[in-house]
């Protein structure tokens, strides 16, 4: 009787610890929010919330795409460079159009520019998928290579210079481009509405579609997934193309917000995206993760970054702190897996008795 009581208490403690670990991202968000509310001046102001929401949205877009990639067992280091390249493509189209070489120049409206830029991001994602699935290049190496390719292409597009004054043209229907980054609907920035749409789409794919189940299956055990009929190659193409699409959206939003495009835009953005995904509960070993958790993780990273800036913390220390956050998130994730295994064993032992 005493043993059964002790086992019950032990199982209850393990279950409580597991619940706390699963809620770690939300707890972390509350803690950093309370901390900066006390120590960062004007943190609770409306103006700061608007600015912070825009920053969070940028990281959340990349983190959502990164989540799918990591769940499938991969990694995408190229997203920051895709952001920079796509911003430069948008800037080039706004300023120059496309010269056909026969005395004609094709100009584009806002919607057409956004579609072209999105296709550029998707194409680079497809290149990543091709390198990984057809040429058997490791995801880390493949996306590291496309990181350099995309960044170099961004530099070449302008000789390393900025494309300034991206105000668009009323004549060509591109004057509304600025609205994407600086406009609002019902008092909420357009980028947040875009994030809501992409987040809901990603969550629906992950939870309600066969494709979502296939992504988890590939990350959990790629060989078993293939033997069970899952088209592993198609799944990997999708996750990298979706990640490239999300990066393209960020390139559009930033160039619209700044009314300028610079080839170095997006440098190290991939680190924030990985941090948000891991902090949100996505396992670096693949097969596990949630879109909702990732978005909360993006809020944690965004609040942390903006709060540190408002407190006057050096950018160098900000980088150190983000690194510590990533390591801590991975350590807690591994601890969570051990606790889950222990809870499962305790449950089986209880049933056996």
Shape: globular
Summed over residues and divided by their number, the pLDDT gives a mean of 88
First and last CA, distance: 11 Å
Radius of gyration: 22 Å
Oligomer: single chain
Q: Note the run of SSEs as H and E.
A: HHHHEEHHHEEHHHHHHH
Q: What portion of residues belong to β-strands?
A: under 5%
Question: How many separate domains make up the residues?
Answer: 1
Strand order of the largest sheet: 1-2
Number of helices: 14
Major beta sheet, specifics? Answer: 2 strands, antiparallel
Class by alpha and beta content:
mainly alpha
Number of strands: 4
Membrane topology: Multi-pass membrane protein
Keywords: Cell inner membrane, Cell membrane, Membrane, Plasmid, Transmembrane, Transmembrane helix, Transport
Pfam families: BPD_transp_2 (PF02653)
InterPro entries: ABC_transp_permease (IPR001851)
Strand-helix topology:
Blueprint: H1 2-22, H2 24-39, H3 46-71, H4 79-96, E1 98-99, E2 105-106, H5 110-133, H6 139-158, H7 177-182, E3 184-185, E4 188-189, H8 190-208, H9 210-220, H10 222-227, H11 232-258, H12 269-279, H13 291-310, H14 315-352
Antiparallel strand pairs: 1-2, 3-4
Helix pairs in contact: 1-14, 2-13, 3-8, 3-11, 3-12, 3-13, 4-5, 4-6, 4-11, 5-6, 5-11, 8-9, 9-11, 12-13, 12-14
Please explain how this structure is put together.
The chain is built from 14 helices and four strands. The protein has 353 residues and is mainly α. The N and C termini lie close together (11 Å). α12 runs parallel beside α14 (315-352). The strands form two sheets. It has a two-stranded antiparallel sheet. A two-stranded antiparallel ribbon has the order 3-4. The protein has one domain (55-315). Helices cover 75% and strands 2% of the residues.
